[in-house]
Design goal:
The complex is a heterodimer of chains A (522) and B (437).
Chain A: H1 3-6, H2 38-51, H3 53-59, H4 61-64, H5 66-73, H6 77-105, H7 107-131, H8 135-164, H9 169-202, H10 207-240, H11 261-274, H12 278-290, H13 296-324, H14 327-347, H15 352-377, H16 383-442, H17 450-476, H18 489-499, H19 506-509, H20 514-521
Helix pairs in contact in A: 2-8, 2-9, 2-10, 3-9, 3-10, 6-7, 6-8, 6-16, 7-8, 7-10, 8-9, 8-16, 9-10, 9-13, 9-15, 11-15, 11-16, 12-13, 12-16, 13-15, 14-15, 14-16, 17-18
Chain B: H1 2-32, E1 40-47, E2 53-60, E3 65-71, E4 79-85, E5 91-94, H2 96-99, H3 104-107, E6 111-114, E7 126-139, E8 153-159, E9 164-170, E10 173-179, E11 191-198, E12 203-204, E13 212-213, E14 217-225, E15 234-243, E16 260-268, E17 280-288, E18 294-301, E19 303-305, E20 315-320, H4 327-334, H5 338-344, H6 346-351, E21 355-361, E22 374-383, H7 393-430
Antiparallel strand pairs in B: 1-2, 2-3, 3-4, 4-7, 5-6, 7-8, 7-15, 9-10, 10-11, 11-14, 12-13, 14-22, 15-21, 16-17, 17-18, 18-22, 19-20, 19-22, 20-21
Classes of the chains: A mainly alpha (522), B alpha+beta (437).
Chain lengths: 522, 437
Amino acid sequence: MDKDEKEPLLTNGGNATVIVVRETKRFTCGSIKDPTSFSHRMIVLTLMCFLSFGSYFCYDTPAALHNQIRQDLDINEVAFMQLYAWYSWPNVVLCFFGGFLLDRVFGIRLGSIIFSVFVLIGQLIYALGATVEKLWLMDVGRFIFGIGGESLAVAQNTYAVLWFKEKDLNLVFGLQLSMARIGSTVNMNLMVPVYDWVENTFSSDRTLGISLFLAAITCIFSLGCALLLAYLDRRAERMLGREKTGQEEVVKFTDVKDFPLQLWLIFLICVGYYVAVFPFIGLGKVLFEEKFGFSPTQSSAVNSIVYILSAPCSPVLGFLVDRLGYNISWVLIAVLTTLFSHGLLGFTFLNPWFAMCVMGVSYSLLACALWPMVSYVVPLHQLATAYGFMQSIQNLGLAVISQVSGLILDSSGYFMLEIFFCICVSAALIATLLLYFVDVVKSCDLNLSARKRKEKSECESVVEASQEEEVAKEELCLPDPELRRPRTAFGIRNRYYSRIGAQIPEHLLAHTSLTRTRCHTV
Amino acid sequence: MYEEMMRFLRFSTGGKISVGIFFILIVFTLNAEGTATLRNVSLERIDGPGNNSVVYIRSQAEVDCLHYVISTVGPTSPTLLLLKSTSNTSRVHISWDKLLHSNSSVVEGAVHLVDENGKPLPKSPKTSFYIFDELLEYEDLQNSSDITDPKNKNLTRIRLNELSWGINVTGFTAVLQGTDNNSSKFTNTSRVELRFTPFSTKGRRSVLPRMAHNELSADVEFIVDGIAASRPSSRFAVILVVANPGNSSFLPSVKVTSDSVVEQVSKRIIDDEYAPTIFTFGQIFSKTKQNSATNNFWQWRTVCYVMPHHTNDDATDVKSTTLTGNQTYVAPALLDNKLLQGYFGFSNLQLIEARATIAGFGKEDDGYYNATAYISWTSLVGFGTPPPESFSITVISILIAGVGIPIVIILIGSVYLLKRRFCDESRIRRSQYEPIE
């Protein structure tokens, strides 16, 4: 290839991103060494899922050892909830920068390794704080843990988009969520036995600290996954030559102001919904004991059912949402059913197993339907930033609402707390309704069926290709008014191609935007 | 798709509106019950010879008069006698000579209702009494806080009539303090205390457990403060003896055929706004058998506090046993009870079917009684049915807003979309061009 051929034809600013076709090494189709093969991508998916296992396992150690922490350190509920708040506070800022750091400073690979190290160090300090029975040191540990934890989740999502863009993205998000929840569930059910075992084996007064140090093993494991994943990703990048265009597009901090209204509404749904789930689970144990007369063991079980259910539900629902589309409708259903289950918990004495199971399923449904919507409303080069921002806002919500819900519980009890959570979900409901209407008005097609979306996406990519063709001709050749006709023969032909489901010819792809092209190339 | 969504929207809107109407109805119901009878409530200490005195609370309205008499005279365990008279000028008269007489048969009639001229009135058919009779201490080896657990050890019974009782009236509260200088369990500051606070209006106290009260009820706070526990894992409980003699025909040597019953229920409520994390009430109702009308009630949230300043962090459980007729607990309470002898007569009192409940204080892992050596248990006693616990205005307005705003958005959005669709259609109709597709 000549030098000219390797260079992009278009260099007109950020909007027209261009794939650089490189010479790549070819493997036999299906070889495990081939980064595009199924088996290879399954390995990557597994590593991706375990990347955040450690952080999710350790995230919920306070809830799992609620009574032990409160008794060993002699602290009240508010001080206890601080352990969660301190986790969330750094992420209010960091998730936002986390996206940028991943995009521009570290890159996804180094970034995920650094954040895994933060998670490990945070957990070690947290355990040390428990060992010397200093609450402030534990808070510091949770803070550092938080710095790594959420940013690691951003890295995980970015990896997922890099490897599984469009095709099966919902399923992948679902699987990641499952692994995260399995981490939480295993933690919820394992930490108390570990604590008891440590107590019986070592019979020291450092039981809590030792237990938490043992929990840190999962963080080491996740760090291993991060290292291996970085190696594989680097290898894939070298072989497939996929990185040099989109990811290093110059991202401006001011991109935030260009976020479409739909994205802000998605953020609002995210905040309203998640603050009604996580802080509730953090405080739920006592509700089941006091209001429903459950034993502590039963309470733990029913409290973790949301996590347990989301493990099998997320991939299944992710697959369904992937295949069916209608994302906003699914979000609406998830929000309404969660409102319903909070209503049941607050206003009735119906066995909470039912309400919590409903919440578990709808929680998984929401995650599968909501998060992928982000990738439909922002271009790929802003995706990491958008996800980072989403998690940042979510963390702001969690940090504030954790403390507010602690205060409400102390002053006004569980009934008010449930009403408060209903209001949060109600806010998410309002945002969902607005999103639906905005979507209809602006014809953004977030709520299209998967089939229509695919058709439309192919159609648009071709139309865009034709338009870019025109632009190119305008710029490079003669500004012929004839070429400005909305439908060129070129465009119509390509539309025909896409209608009958034929592959769009390779040479056209170079003229389409990266965002639209990915779906055809992956 | 669009039509499907519209159909969906219409469906969900309809559902929401009916929920909205439901809440509005609640508001009206709440407002409707806002009418209360004006009652004139007085609290006084009636002093007799020696250090003897009783607390008398009188609550007068247009058509009736309620009487609460609280006494430890005898000495007896603190006893609360509730009388309801249809004469609004009635009051309780105490003949101290009779009441303090050592011969039990003479005591009858020492306490009776009189009209404004001092003329005795017949016995009230709506009568109940409650006796705080014994303090129980047991060693909770299982850390289960279950008084009925057979594995408990070292049960100690402390009769409250063995304490020396003093009565003070401060403001609108009568305070009965029991101490015992001869017992090793009592130091200078140790005491068993009962506080009676009658109410003349509807409302709710600012101190936890913040039960709703009305003008027909009074607060009873039972306090154990600084009594030495025998063991580190000791817990305390109190025996409450209850009877609802009603209009028993106290004929000599005839078994009482009372038309009244006492029943105990446990009531759950969804609203713990006023006493966080407490969802249950213990209730004892004195009812008339025929129409099962509740004459009076004794109710408590199943919570007690282990510090004088009640906070959620200092809350622990109150677990009560079902009412029992077990004479081990009931009989001593009625024996030598001067107040009850004075009202019912000695022989009649033997025929009254009283029952007892044991209220145990504490829950698992709360550090046993010794953690603070303090217990405060609040009950509400009153005539008629207990005041209803209703949602606060805050709750209702939040609920209406939470349901209303989405409905408004659905309506506005639907109208806008319909209008837009209509405009589009008419534009297409006006258009000269055929759509390409």
